[in-house]
Design goal:
heterodimer; A: mainly alpha; 13 helices; about 0% strand; globular; B: alpha/beta; Rossmann fold; Coagulation Factor XIII, Chain A, domain 1; 2 domains; six-stranded mixed beta sheet; about 35% strand
Amino acid sequence: MMNEIINQKPLRRTVIQPVKNWFGINLKELWEYRELFWILALREVQLRYRQTLLGVIWVILQPLLTTAIFTVVFGILMKTQSDNVNYVLFAFVGLLPWSVFSQSLQRAGISLTREINLITKIFFPRIIIPIASAASTLVDFLVSLAIMAILMVVYQVHLSINILTLPVLLLFSMLLSIGVGIIFAALNVYYRDFTYVLPFLIQVWMYASPLAYSSKLIPPSWTWIYDLNPLVGIINGFRWAILGTTDFPVKSLIYSITASIVLLIIGLALFRRLERSFADVI
Amino acid sequence: MPEFILCVENISKRYRILPTTGKGWRKNQRVLVDDIARVTNQLLGRKYSEKKVSFWALKDVSFQAGQGDIIGVIGRNGAGKSTLLKLLGRVTEPTSGRAIIYGRVGSLLEVGTGFHSELTGRENIFISGAIIGMSTAEIKRKFDEIVAFSGVEEFLDTPVKRYSSGMEVRLAFSVAAHLKPQVLLVDEVLAVGDVAFQEKSVQKIKEVSEGGGTILFISHNMTTVSSLCNKAMVLDHGKTIFPLGPVRDAIATYLSEVGKSQQVQLEESRQLEATGGVKITGFSVRGVDNTILETLTSGMPVKFQVEYTGEQFSPIKDINISILIKNLRGDVIANLNSLGTVGPLKLSAYKGVVICHVAKLPLAPGSISISLILEQAGQVVDKIEDAFIGIVDMGGHYEGNTLKERNGWVLIDHDWLIK
């Protein structure tokens, strides 16, 4: 009885001491907490539509309504050029990466300040919170993808082999949103101002991305500055992969991927640095 | 197998003091300027003096605990007890020093539980388990036991936001204690539950200890500490004033240390929200000349002065004040009860003082604490633990013959006859 627990397996040894480095992500520890990651992501999904009347229907309604608004304003009223594709399809495909990006950025950015209860009481790798929040938007993405499939049947668009690149494109839009999201999440713990900055950033980012319009509208002399937005490559990549109408955006995609990785590394370092005092200042 | 489960070496924690002057934007501005100065200095590799804006909540605390140890951490409010538990629970990082822990740590820090209020009790059990590092399968195995112990069966599928604080703590304690932690950190939570649950919890803590677990236990209740813990340490202002050792000595150190600097803050010691129209606002122990006493003397006259404030200007009727004198183990050795001696009190104005006069204090030398209970029409409306903690000095209770050493708790007037 005495040593029942102790004898089962060697005990995990935890050393608690001040962390000085900027890049000490403990991958082994993260792996040990993988179940918590799933539970938190799942909880996020469960909680999202709790106490709503329509519940899960919102997941389907949201992208459809946005597409409808875009189609009326930009497609019908302004007759925006849409790379010679039906505007509904054009807008919906653009919204796929944008929704997953903007929603996970938004959720990750405010995730920590909603979890004061957990952060001040219990230890676990804090990075799990924003990443689980971001990952929870993948459910919405999958639903949107299903709607996309229906739209493609309706509009008789044929799939090409390009579609196989979709997971990679999705991965980098997620990494990008996580990179920026954890920066906001960490800063938000210290200064809640970032809660209010975030929606504006997302709004500006939306107009700066080829969502409602085609990036071909941008005058050539301005494209260099326009392409600084790492989402341009990703969104055009999605249109290439699904609709196959534009050329493969090699240059801007390489830039997008580099930018996502760099932002993610900056985000992780900053998070690591600020994480130490979360419980003290939150 | 390591010879210790928990080893703490010179662990320290420094907190920043937020500016107290200015408010709103001016205050935030100063914090911001401070932050920028600190970050720039760090980036430039310069040393930034934090002395002026910070204080040590915990300084150079060291101790070791082995399997099965139940360690009591005692000290006043702000002594650094909770900070110590937060550091060991890895909620916050130490400023310097280190600690080594073997095995899984379960923790119950302060009141409140780390539960998510929108989720049901059932969902929260799984989240809490996962946070401690258990697999879903493990939690499922323990699930029924956890629920049965907590006694919240009927509310399992109710969001935790509709739980009472007692229910929430019961469930949290139950989760933390059943997940077989090697180290269990318990901070004052037992004060919340009802007596039956407290007894169950104490039993559970003993079980965890018998199974080889190590427990760190914070409590203000010296009775619980002395009956439960096998070792104890005393902290004061972040420093160790009594290193880990025998519980009895630790408690004695604590009581004498606390006695030196009197004036326990009543608000901090208030055990439950004052519910009635009247509450205790002050308590002092005074001599015949009305001076405030920090130490009592056996056999001397003493006045216990209770200040009260009511909400209305009308007289407050049917009042009973109890002054409970406890020994260092927390046993009540005397209860000065107004209802029993003079009947129900009628307090005239909405604010005033009630004095309880003892002509000849019959207490043996030693440490005591005094708790207050205020009742109105049989209902407890205010309760203050440890309103006074101090020492009773030797005096001339037996007319000139001073006692050399403690013998019991009370002094009874008596005579000896030889026939």
